[in-house]
Amino acid sequence: MRTLTLRGGARVAVVAAEWRDVFGVVTRGRVQLELRDGEPGPVLGRDAGFWLRGTGVRALRNPGRRTARVRIVTPRARTVTCRSTHPHASHRMMEDDMNSMNDTGVVAGPASGRTSPTHRLRGLAGIGFVATLAAMGATTLAAALAQAVGVDFEVPDGGESIPLPGFAVVTGFFSVVGIVIAAALLRWSARPAARFVWTAVSLTAISLIPPLLSGANTATTTALLGLHLVPATVMIPTLARSLRTRTD
């Protein structure tokens, strides 16, 4: 037998060959099963028993902050011939065989099995920072091209034209907001990539409403709508891809 220790937020991948004929029992805390398609599975409490062969589970996750422990029972691979007619004889022999095995421990930190949350978040932040710079540059360039063809970016409410640096600042701010959302989902969601895409697309759609209500001329409104989509096409795929890489 061996004990798997999952610290708060830990995630350990399930290797099918290692779980083929083993039986697990939660002896402390809670353990959530993560299904093969990334969907969060059931959360098992203390004294819950389970086996993973043929279940489509790809990882075990500790959804809470308290350390969880799973006792993993692996029967010794041997053939036992028993002539006893007692209905529980073979069960007792297997139980004795299991109890005679050494009890070893495996500790999983709050990571995805290979890297800690700090390393994953740093990697996501680094990629997000580069994507933010790219989004700021692309948006500012698109705004400059729009100005070159005659778009004045004048909003009636303010009475002034939006300067080019203003596009860079706004793009950078909301890109950082996107990185924060992605980091939170990476830390606490079982499906960070899918949930991030859904959230980011929804927020992008909402951001298209102000230009439509600004009262600007058609050219300015159209350009503003396009400039909302430019950073979205840079940030959303980049962060979603990074989230998938760090949860596989």
From TrEMBL:
Keywords, in A-Z order: Membrane, Transmembrane, Transmembrane helix
Q: Which InterPro entries match?
A: DUF6069 (IPR045713)
- Give the stretches traversing the membrane: 124-146, 166-186, 193-213, 219-240
Record flagged with keyword Transcription: no
Protein name per UniProt: Integral membrane protein
Q: Which organism is it from?
A: Actinomadura miaoliensis
